[in-house]
Design goal:
Length: 292
């Protein structure tokens, strides 16, 4: 597993590869699976992601608490100034996956269940407006996996350990790199997309009402997809972030370790601690309490 995104990018450039191509070959070089086997696994993940988006966009599912569901289809059919663009498609798809997750449906943890809507939302939102093959999407997922692996080694992917910056934030960074790969950007642009996206999520708290991954988690996936799209757009335009990407990732880990425990998935702070948050959590927990 790569421990430095900068080094991975340099290796990809030296080999004349995209970051996705490098990621596939680097993982295969570890000897556990061939490139074809890795691609098959990513294709299965892609299929599950698509199914989750399609299921969520039917608009008829609700979480057990009743707090989550039916919003993805609203965004999908929205009439705002950005309606019908890759931006709103990505938001709708991210919400759709998280609504399926909240209703105990099948999703792909990317990198976690709490952040699972960002990557498919971003990629499939972009893909709805272009002619992209599954092979291209698979390479984009490989790119995302490489980024997630580096984040896991250098920082954290756990909301309980690092706050939501380690889940939604990492997912947004992964999606940013994947989007650049899909759109034909360079490894360097993918690297800057990661840094540009992750810097905007630093310090993001994990504050789920009642400790369940519904509110505000579902909606943060749409926000995460929006931030990924911003990172992609800036990087492809030639914007570069002055802090090296590995240092940005390291900083996320440091912030997570220093973050007050109330803001790390304990439901003890943030929106979970508001009067309305506590009331909704109490009502939901009563509703979910087993009978008998």
């Amino acid at each position: 597993m790569a421990e430095s995104l900068q080094e991975a990018v340099e290796a990809a450039v030296a080999a004349g590869q995209s970051l996705g191509e490098y990621a596939l070959e680097a993982e295969a070089a570890e000897g556990l699976r061939t490139v074809a086997e890795i691609e098959a696994g990513l294709q299965r993940a892609l299929d599950i992601m698509r199914n989750a988006v399609e299921r969520g966009l039917q608009g008829d599912i609700r979480s057990v608490s009743g707090l989550v569901g039916g919003d993805a289809i609203k965004v999908h059919h929205g009439t705002g100034p950005l309606a019908g663009t890759p931006f709103t498609e990505a938001l709708a798809a991210a919400l759709a996956v998280q609504e399926v997750n909240a209703a105990m449906g099948v999703i792909v943890a990317a990198p976690t269940a709490g952040g699972a809507g960002v990557l498919p939302g971003t990629l499939l939102g972009l893909a709805r407006r272009g002619e992209y093959t599954d092979a291209q999407l698979v390479r984009a997922l490989a790119t995302a996996g490489l980024v997630g692996g580096v984040v896991a080694v250098r920082a954290s992917l756990s909301g309980a350990e690092g706050g939501c910056q380690a889940e939604t934030g990492a997912a947004a960074a992964m999606a940013a790199a994947a989007g650049v790969e899909l759109l034909g950007g360079s490894p360097e642009q993918a690297m800057h997309a990661v840094a540009l996206t992750m810097q905007g999520t630093l310090g993001l708290v994990c504050d789920p009402l009642g400790g369940l991954v519904e509110v505000p988690c579902v909606y943060r996936n749409a926000t995460g997809a929006a931030m990924a799209l911003a990172g992609i757009e800036m990087a492809l335009a030639g914007v570069t972030f002055p802090i090296p990407v590995d240092e940005v990732i390291d900083t996320m880990g440091k912030i997570g370790r220093e973050m007050d425990v109330r803001y790390r998935e304990t439901a003890g702070g943030g929106l979970a601690a508001t009067p309305t948050g506590r009331r909704l959590a109490k009502e939901r927990l009563v509703q979910l309490k087993p009978r008998g």
